[in-house]
User: Fold these one by one.
Assistant:
Number 1:
Amino acid sequence: MRIDLHCHSTASDGTDTPAELVRKARAAGLDVVALTDHDTTRGYAEAVAALPEGLTLVTGAELSCRIDGVSMHLLAYLFDPEEPALLAERELVRDDRVPRAKGMVAKLNALGVPVTWEQVERIAAGGSVGRPHVATALVELGVVPTVSDAFTEEWLADGGRAYVEKHETDPFEAIRLVRNAGGVCVFAHPAAAKRGRTVPEARIAEMAEAGLDGIEVDHMDHDADARDRLRGLAKDLDLLVTGSSDYHGSRKDVALGAYTTDPEVYGEITRRATGAFPVPGTGGA
């Protein structure tokens, strides 16, 4: 089995619609794909309706969190999307995305960059607006050559000149909410240092004690040394190890299935989850 547990669609900051995503996942030879848009589950229905035969969909979301001033993401899998407490928190985070993006536009304007909110809104195309949409605007204007080049201290990285904070959930509270909604939590790209400061291992150990299920180890932003270190940490803390592409369509230079999760780990995730179940494809529209 080939299993990719971290992918984004136009429901947040990917460039493929949910339907396109699942079709491309099957064409790429995947057997299981997770839809993990940022702080939203809006893409579920379209993905399920288009799910091709031979592909199983894991529903999820990538939750925006912050601890000790460090931004981090939690991948939540197979939770009940209608559970009220987790739904309310997701909406709180999502509602703060628009004023935050407008704040980044204002800061960029003050730096002499002629980006407009209308441009960012067009790029987001109704999705959950975020920094990648602002970064894409910078690419369109020729300010930076790629989206990744916008995530520096000069521009949009944490603490960068045009960075604006947003509401982010305490990870311990997020773990509690996801578990109460029947879901499973995995710390996304914990050693992605080029994105900014990372969470110390001591804090990850505290999260493990609080119910964190796993850490994403095999990821494009982790070099070989980071992966070895994270595997050792996962073993010490008895955490699951996942791998995934963090696919965003054309917004990032990584292919579906570039990194994958071991079938036994996937089986354990589905065993632990009680809020939802993987959806097998039957030949969608």
Number 2:
Amino acid sequence: MRLRTLLGDHPGTAALKNGSIRSHLVAFDFVPYSPTNKGFKPMVREAAFDVSEMAIVTYLMAKSFGKPMVLLPDVVLARFQHGHALYNAKAGKLAPRDLNGKRVGIRSFTTTTGAWLRGILANDYDVDLDSIDWVTFEDAHVAEFVDTTKRAGAGKQIMQMLIDGELDAVLGEKSDHPDLKPLFADVVAEEKAWFEKHGVVPINHMVVVSQTLSDEHPDVVREVHRLLAESAAASSAAPRFDRGEMQRSLRLIIDYSAQQKLIPRAFSVGELFDDVTRALW
């Protein structure tokens, strides 16, 4: 069976994408999107692919609106988030606890990195997220989500707005600009302390399959998972999660997403899978 597939270039997907890992049961027609996240919207809105990389928060939001897709227990991107928050040091020093009442930019309010960072700010630094004037540049992948943030003016660029002093801070970005500094002053130390507290590596992207594929071809879904797992095992740089680690990471991002009203309620981790994919853990 040929599967229309959206899958980015990651250490754990390389062996699958370069053809060194093959299957007699399935073949992948890889659809090029650059960056890969540009393909999440057509997957969510049009069910454009049989197999798709997917930001975990986008998946949670899609599930809350009954989109016909199901999660596989395969992580393709995971990282600590603290280094993806910046402020303009020319305007004076800014620390995480100083964000209350400030103007903060983010590409889209619903990005997974943004949800992780807001959860960290709210729960570990006592930041009042509702006090912040959020400025966004893109809509959500999930069309039904009602975004109440302030949209940046036409032609405005997030990093230039920060450099020009139109924003106090931005989330989800990195830069080598000399005026822009990490919001978390010692990123490595902050990440280490956060991990020691929570025991979680934040998951960004996993893989989903269409509900139709799972319902009608469970053997194909099992084979897709086997191939993804084999490809990940071929790279020492691929994310490594055992069942407990994946559960903890998913549990926390579910809680953060519900807290931020990205989803109407906190799902159980088990609800993210169906009978076919739940058995793959």
Number 3:
Amino acid sequence: MEVASLVLPVFAIIVTGWLAGELGYLSRALADALVHFAYNVAMPALLIVTIAQEPARNLLEWRFLLAFGGGSLICFVLVFLAVRAGGKRDLASSTIHGMAAAMTNTGFVALPILHAIYGQPAVLPAAVATVFVAAVMFPITVILLEWDARGPAHSAGLAKQILLNPMVLSTLVGLVWAITGLPIPPPVVVYLNMIAAALTPCALFAIGLGLSVDGLRSSLKASFALAAVKLVVMPLIVYGLCVVLSLAPLYTVAAVVCAAVPTAKTVYVLAHEHKVEERLVAATVSITTMLSVATLLIALYLLSGSASGGR
């Protein structure tokens, strides 16, 4: 019930956006403005406030990072190479395919689920997973997308473009702040959190608003394949790494849950901003959000007895 109560509202916002566009209540063109706001304002605020407030030492839970981060990167590479091997997709398209199967919605789904079921001890690993997605997965995506857009011949301009990208720049600001150990002034935290809070409704509503039935149908087969990797293959890989690394029971549960939640809505923000595979990502986010209600319940049931050992 905890899982359904957290995941179903997410899906409901997507459906609301779709209905608004389908019924002509709002113009589908408004999706662009919502995504631009999410990409350039709300997401940077979230990255800074999330990373900067996490003590640097907490970001070095190396076995958890290897399990969750390793599983994320393995899934990305497998899908990326599979798509590239097909020979019909460019670098940007292959990157978005890979991230749709590997970039996970830890902050808005996994963290509250783990906190609701296991309490405060489960928050730290979920926070570390969120920082990994922000500090590693986002920059990798931006670098590959910018590389595809500008090419190696413009390496100097490419480096500047990557460093000035809102995602990368805000990640670097957050990491530097975390390393200094300085607290963020409370008014600044409130300010950043207020802006960051707009990310979820803006991004999810934009996904629905820009989603057409024809577009969904055209991407259905590929989206279900990516959803299978995201919701089944990735959690299994992460669990295997947890076993190999002898990760503590609670951290094992946290790593698997973080891997088993839907595709991050910010993959759609990236895809839309770079005009790459938008329909595919919108469909994948929608499908993984819907199906994760069942897969998360199964994962939690199978792992329920193992978390009693704590860290």
Number 4:
Amino acid sequence: MGERILILGANGQIGSELAAALRLKFGADNVITSDIREPRERADQEIFELVNVLDKERVKHLFEQYQPTQVYLLAAMLSATGEQYPQKAWDLNMNGLLNVLDLAVELGTKKIFWPSSIAVFGPHSPKVDTPQYCVMDPNSIYGISKLAGERLCEYYHKRYGLDIRSIRYPGIISWKTEPGGGTTDYAVHIYFEALRKGAYTSFLSEETELPMLYMQDAVRGTLALMDAPAEKLSIRSSYNLAGMSFTPKDISEEIQKILPNFEISYTESDPRQAIADSWPKRINDDYARQDWGWAPSFDLEAMTKDMIENLKSTI
């Protein structure tokens, strides 16, 4: 029997591009996408189902109907939105995960992917070269739920032998999807606004350095982790993954090399600044490199060129 993939929360930034890569790899007939709303556009031959991950019976029906060998649980409320609706964020991020973990154990699903985030780190975590194991004291509901989720994933692996795999994503940048409520989303929005308006007002200060990852690398890294032999994996909570780190000033200067008239300004007292200040500046991902051969392909310069080239044809 070949692989059959179920993606829960497929309409988001990562889900939409991961789904395309999985269809290319396994065939459209073997990839089932789902979300709480219909996608804006369906891909050719896309199999799509409406589902709320909090509706356990509906999710169970999809498991039984399609019998997936791999499930990607991407449904979540992100950091900035979560601060507006903390109880809803906790409910979605935690109970959605528990539903999928329980069903995977009950129905014998072979592999689960669940994304964590650099939001699991907090004010007392090392900011530079943040290691896999360190103090983790997140101060956003998103980060708190992701840290709790990591502990659940490791618990279900040890207790039930569930093959669950995870990445602590940094900020993800893509030209295909507009910002979706994350603190790092300025690094997506700035490119869109550079081409639309020639200017951008950043809600983060010019020297706020954060780890980022270009979408092509994020998808490639995710598939590589899922392809890795189980015996090679030493982390069953979530792997640190790094691509590049930069500030709003850095990214604006890179954009100005291509669009010389681009201008950036900064706001003060945005609540997202406090979230960003608690996160790492640069991540150490030695475990991912050693265990499954991770290495990024894009730096800031290469990403900026690719972003602007692609956006010029879409905006």
